Sequence to fold (234 residues):
Amino acid sequence: MGMHLPSRRAVCLLSGGLDSTTCLAVARHQGFECYALSFDYGQRHQTELAAAGKVAASLGAARHVTLKLDLRAFGGSALTDEIAVPKHARVEDIGEGIPVTYVPARNTIFLSCALGWAEVLGAFDIFLGVNAVDYSGYPDCPPDFIRSFEETARLATAAGVEGKGSFRIHTPLIDLTKAEIIGLAASLNVDLSLTHSCYDPSPTGKSCGRCDSCLLRRKGFAEAGLTDPLEYVA
Fold:
């Protein structure tokens, strides 16, 4: 028997959605000991947080923390304020530009919290399921933002300043289409029935089927030639 090397630790941002779930599975597949971080940030519903808990358990996270951070204090997004979530009949109807479901500076805030936990854990790896192909036009997803945050992490932490290591933000899904992400999840045997994507689910937690997130998810499953295990209202 050879020496078993201790696992490298990684903090994995986990919303309970398709992308972050697949990202957690990739981190685990790469041999990381995964610490899953979710946020109860005042979003419209708790369905995705329940999904995140199930996903973290099924993918063997070493620990799952849900941080309460009430962004409703600021509002400014259809996910945290009294602004209607846009609904469409088809993917092609999704508007151009930054949608009202964008939560101001959300990924910057979430990554900052992940960085704090990573430093406590002695971890230098953070996994983020952002995607720059089939995404909803959010500004805090592209690679140049991710690289700039790595530089911020180097300058802003004791571990970085003391040269103990370099923080790396892993974005394994950044260049994949939604169909490719679903295919990757299937290849890693991820139970996608545990995930939740909808911005505006019914009181019973059923997905609406017509918000941007539902439409992109359904298109992805269709293009991947796989059956979406979720039920939709419409």
Summary: Residues 106-121 form the longest helix (16 residues). The beta strands are 8-13, 32-40, 63-68, 125-127, 168-170. Residues 153 and 160 are 7 Å apart (CA to CA).
